[in-house]
Amino acid sequence: MTMQPELFKSLVKAAAEQVIASAAELTALDQAIGDGDHGANMKRGFEAVLGKLDAIGAQPLDEALKTIGKTLVMTVGGASGPLYGSFFMAAGEALARKQLPDDLADVFGSGVGAVSARGRSHAGEKTMLDVLIPIQETLKAGAGSPDLIERVRSTASEAAARTAPMQATKGRASFLGPRSIGHIDPGARSSCVLINAVCSTLEAQQ
Amino acid sequence: MNDMVGIVIVSHSKDIAKGTADMVRQMVGSEVRVAFCGGNPDGGLGTNVPGIIEAINSAWSAKGVAILVDLGGAETNSEMAVEMLEPERRNRVVVCNAPIVEGAVMAATEAAGGSSLEQVRAVAEELAAN
């Protein structure tokens, strides 16, 4: 695996800062269909990640991903902790046996599989998977394509928006039944924020 | 002391977790180890993995530990906490699919009789089947 430590650190930093800056928006979305803590939880988790940024940057990439995951598990304080935590831990686990950039879709897919297993959830249930699965597909279909970053970014935004008309059948929002329709899922939105931050940072490097 | 299944109560609210533990102790007695965890790492409403691991350690018995949870995040965080235990302890902890208060009382009652972890879980989960 080759990625410069400084680039990886800048990706983590941008993703964390962007999700922290979006805390109020995520909370507002979660107040509509959940228990209103998604913004505060993600902020707490990613502040803890930022606090370890130097240590994370000094680790091999697979270990660094696992550290991010474990930090989120231990600090988020809601279901999103184990969900995002499992994503990063499984991606780190997979990366130990894979090569970037060739296997990016596979590594990302391992993370997505872990989220699905942890939440016992699948596509179409109005969750973060409704963003993560389409991104995995875009990474696979667009591997090596010069406009991959732009395609990932638009996939994330479009996929998050597509959760609005869905009815939630998993998580707290499922208690609302049809009343969950019409709101973007907070977890889908936070996934989109993280992906967009990574895309913007990569574009700025080019 | 160590021959009864331990009980862990995980709620989003520290007050609910503590109140449930109090009810268990009053109704079942103090011979069963009961530990609880409520609130996120900042003390607000939520659940947290380090706190759940600590509660499992404090209720630990060689016969295992049964966890009772309230809403979704409590279940997800409890499952995560169990997976972070050492491999030899992992399969001796179960998260029960049962209402938190009734489940905790029924599980502790069954545990007090010296039942196995599977029996304790089954008695608690009968409540959810009704």
Descriptive account of the structure:
The complex is a heterodimer of chains A (206) and B (130). Chain A has 206 residues and is mainly alpha-helical. Chain A has a single domain, classed as Serine Threonine Protein Phosphatase 5, Tetratricopeptide repeat (Alpha Horseshoe). Chain A has helices at residues 5-21, 23-33, 38-51, 53-58, 61-75, 80-95, 104-119, 129-141, 148-162, 186-205. In chain A, helix 3 (38-51) packs across helix 5 (61-75). The mean pLDDT of chain A is 94. Chain B is of the alpha/beta class. Chain B has a single domain (6-125), classed as Phosphotransferase system, mannose-type IIA component (Rossmann fold, 3-Layer(aba) Sandwich). Helices cover 52% and strands 15% of the residues of chain B. Chain B has six helices and four strands. In chain B, strand 1, helix 1 and strand 2 (34-38) form a beta-alpha-beta unit. Chain B is globular and about 35 Å long. The chains are: A mainly alpha (206), B alpha/beta (130).
Biggest pleated sheet of chain B: 4 strands, parallel
Structural class of chain A: mainly alpha
Q: How far apart lie the N and C ends of chain A?
A: 19 Å
Q: Tally the helices of chain B: what do you get?
A: 6
Beta percentage of chain A is under 5%
Question: Which features does this protein show?
Answer:
heterodimer, A: 206 residues, mainly alpha, Serine Threonine Protein Phosphatase 5, Tetratricopeptide repeat, 69% helix, B: 130 residues, alpha/beta, Rossmann fold, 4-stranded parallel sheet, 6 helices, 4 strands, 15% strand
